[in-house]
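User: Second chain of the day. Same drill as before.
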Amino acid sequence: MSIRRFALAGVVALGLAATHAAGAQAPYRVALEPGTRVRVTTDGVPDRRVIGSVLALRDDTLALRGTDGQHRFPLTHLRSLEVRGGRDRRRGMLIGGGIAFGITAVFGGVDRANGQISTGGLTETLATNAAIGALVGWVFAPTGWEPIPLPYRGREAENSARDFR
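Assistant: Same format as last time:
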């Protein structure tokens, strides 16, 4: 009985060691098609964002065509990488609802001050127009940025940032 337990514990330990080693050695690949719109920041200049189209991604180096020329970035020096994603519906609703609410508040406030509308009527109109504005904002939502997780965050990124500067 004890030999079986010992053998089972050895098999489990070897299995865990093999999966840990395989996970540590598994290559991380970022797949971006040429022409994809991306936004990057680097460790060397974290305050500057470069927006451009992907020219190529070879040998862990990203080549972009931005508005200010072409750039080449080693993936190990990237602080963030974002791709142009789908519609940001929440942001669209906030913008649309906020604009509709603001316009209604200004003109409704003038009407309320002149006695042309009651406080209850103004409140009702504000709520209705904000809801309609939010729906319009949802339909015409702007496009957002989606972050791509980078494999080089941690101590390796700190060391590469020192080398890049």
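Residues 40 and 81 are 5 Å apart (CA to CA).

User: Great, on to the next one.
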